[in-house]
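Internal tracking record. Fields below are filled automatically when a chain is submitted to the structure queue. Please do not edit lines marked as system-generated. If the sequence contains nonstandard residues, flag them in the REMARKS field before resubmitting.
Queue: standard
Priority: normal
Entity type: single polypeptide chain
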Amino acid sequence: LAAVHQAFRQFADSFDRKNGGFGSAPKFPTPHSLIFLMEYGARQKRPEALAMAETTLVQMYRGGIFDHIGGGFSRYSTDGQWLVPHFEKMLYDNSLLVMAYIKAYGRTGRKMYGCVAGKILEYVRQELTDSQGGFYCGQDADSGGAEGSYYLFTKEEVIRLLGREDGPEFCRLYGITETGNFEEKNIPNRIGQAEGGWRNGDSRLKALSQYRKARMQLLLDNKILLSWNGWAILAFAAAAQVFDSRRCLEAAVNT
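SYSTEM-GENERATED OUTPUT FOLLOWS
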């Protein structure tokens, strides 16, 4: 038990109260640490432990490390506020993050956490699922000869695609500007936003996703690893139980 208390103190000492996460950049999601803090807070009656996990989960979702168009998290953030990721997406990260967001949803009842878990699972279904039921390892960071170019937009592109009404709305809600936030282009993000974003399955988000895929393709790591698929099975099974989702249950059973 002493080691458990010491672990909590170490997290508390390195916690970034403004941006969430621990220590300085680069910042990794480390969902297993967030799950530990939620369990520790509940068992030891330390609400500050849950608060650290919640702040981190919210800020990660708001940042560019989360793909607000296609779902799923990149591996880590190169800065302290989760804006600019290393754009590689991995199955094991996303599976464990589903479990962290589902636990937060169970502890707090906040719908946002369930929504994020759903977006991650939909990403895994759409992009990483093999025809025989297994899951691929991930998608590469490089596309079109440069890291992250698949995910970047100019303001002009967004307005041309979505129109003069929906285009400016997306730009306002997702931090898209003329000057850009990364190499003169934009990583969509929700940092500092009080207004709600577009919902899961919104046809306008689907249009942006289809446009990205038409522009260029991401390289796929199509190995199917037993241990990583084990995490994915756990994630889909947990989602099936919490959300009473037959679709998630079938994905776990098929794998």
